[in-house]
């Protein structure tokens, strides 16, 4: 899960917890708030009634010791004043109860204020009731409103957090993309700082740039060392080879000595081939080749097929050239020849007798894909991951395998901006894909 999503979820869950707590508190307080509001209203009604006891309507009932009753039309409110046993001293504090009353065949639940008072040397009981149906309706309305508010707040919180975290983490993802994911060559690293106001991201940017600078220096030293050592070794190897060849020309040389000389020459030639391969890799990585040739891929494949015809016949392999498009790349023709030669040569080297090699291409919207497939030994996942490492050798009957072929392929593809992908199944074969950008026209 992305950091942006995690932050958004954390903020949302935190705010959701606060909203839920607040909403629950409101719901639990609704009833008390509602009843408090009703009781205040009843107390106001009580004061108003006590002020109007001398009115003609009420006084007439009280004078004759009759019960005074008053209901509104919907029976939602009532007032009852009835005489009770005389009490010289009565409390001034009203009492509140909730009761079910039936008034003129209408049964409802009421919140009732009960208060005893003395008037004209008589004690009376005052009851003022209000139906709590309105309270229940108010509670229902508040619950729905609270739920709706919760959902809207949650949605707004999630959206706002996603937008904010996306804005906040934008420099972080730029740093990861530009300075880690897209870095194929430490020598061409982009040291330009990513604009950000977050100190942590600035520290990350500076740390990566510092680390890449160290890696670039070490990488440059390594390439220079390989180039220098390889170049210096070629001269003594050539001198030794020449001397051994001159010794072989002597007639008095014994057969045993001659065999040893041939073995030594073979070892020297193997060493020379390895050094030349390392020099090639070093020169490619140091950009010592020009990319001024228009290289037609189909033409190079045909040339390599003719060059390797004897090896194909030797292993009884079928070569299927299924190229349908004419694609040209601006690059270095000898290097492109070496690249494709190494791939097809590997397809022969690791193939099974009477197997096949298929070269096909595919044209997509923005890329051209060249596929080289064999029916050979194949590779497991670990071998695929290590395939482009130098001196990485796989099981083969070929004695002249130095483990540098795919390392050269990797250097040349990087030099030309070509992506390379391996798809292989053990004991079933290997497919190598070269993915070109569409630079020139197709015909």
UniProtKB/TrEMBL annotation:
Highest taxon above the source species: Bacteria
Catalytic reaction(s) noted: ATP + protein L-histidine = ADP + protein N-phospho-L-histidine
GO molecular function: phosphoprotein phosphatase activity; phosphorelay sensor kinase activity
Keyword 4Fe-4S: no
Chain segments annotated as transmembrane: 12-30
One GO term of the biological process aspect: cellular response to phosphate starvation
GO CC field: plasma membrane
Protein name: histidine kinase
């Amino acid at each position: 899960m992305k950091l942006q999503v995690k932050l958004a979820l954390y903020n949302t869950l935190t705010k959701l917890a606060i909203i839920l707590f607040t909403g629950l508190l409101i719901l639990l307080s609704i009833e008390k708030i509602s009843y408090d509001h009703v009781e205040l209203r009843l107390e106001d009604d009580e004061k108003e009634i006590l002020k109007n006891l001398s009115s003609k309507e009420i006084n007439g009932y009280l004078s004759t010791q009759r019960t005074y009753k008053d209901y509104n039309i919907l029976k939602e409110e009532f007032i009852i004043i009835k005489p009770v046993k005389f009490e010289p001293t009565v409390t001034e504090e009203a009492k509140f109860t909730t009761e079910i009353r039936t008034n003129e065949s209408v049964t409802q639940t009421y919140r009732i204020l009960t208060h005893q008072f003395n008037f004209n040397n008589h004690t009376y009981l005052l009851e003022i009731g209000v139906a709590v149906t309105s309270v229940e309706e108010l509670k229902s309305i508040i619950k729905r409103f609270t739920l709706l508010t919760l959902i809207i707040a949650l949605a707004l919180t999630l959206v706002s957090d996603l937008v904010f975290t996306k804005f906040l983490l934008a420099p972080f993802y730029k740093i990861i993309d530009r300075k880690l994911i897209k870095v194929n060559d430490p020598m061409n690293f982009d040291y330009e700082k990513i604009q950000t106001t977050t100190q942590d991201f600035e520290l990350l940017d500076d740390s990566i740039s510092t680390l890449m600078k160290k890696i670039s220096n070490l990488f440059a030293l390594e390439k220079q060392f390989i180039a220098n050592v390889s170049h210096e070794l070629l001269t003594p190897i050539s001198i030794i080879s020449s001397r051994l060849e001159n010794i072989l020309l002597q007639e008095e040389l014994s057969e045993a000595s001659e065999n040893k000389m041939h073995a030594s020459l073979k070892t020297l030639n193997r060493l020379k081939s390895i050094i030349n391969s390392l020099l090639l890799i070093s020169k490619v990585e140091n950009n010592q080749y020009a990319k001024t040739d228009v290289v037609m891929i189909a033409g190079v494949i045909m040339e390599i097929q003719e060059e390797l015809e004897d090896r194909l016949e030797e292993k009884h392999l079928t070569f299927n050239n299924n190229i349908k498009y004419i694609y040209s790349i601006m690059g270095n023709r000898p290097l492109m020849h070496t690249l494709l030669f190494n791939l097809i040569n590997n397809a022969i080297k690791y193939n099974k007798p009477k197997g096949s090699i298929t070269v096909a291409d595919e044209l997509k919207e923005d890329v051209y894909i060249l596929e080289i497939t064999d029916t050979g030994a194949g590779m497991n996942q670990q071998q695929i991951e290590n395939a482009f490492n130098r001196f990485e050798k796989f099981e083969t009957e070929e004695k002249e395998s130095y483990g540098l072929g795919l390392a050269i392929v990797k250097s040349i593809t990087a030099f030309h901006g070509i992506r390379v992908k391996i798809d292989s199944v053990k004991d079933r074969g290997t497919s190598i894909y070269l993915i070109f950008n569409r630079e020139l026209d197709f015909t």
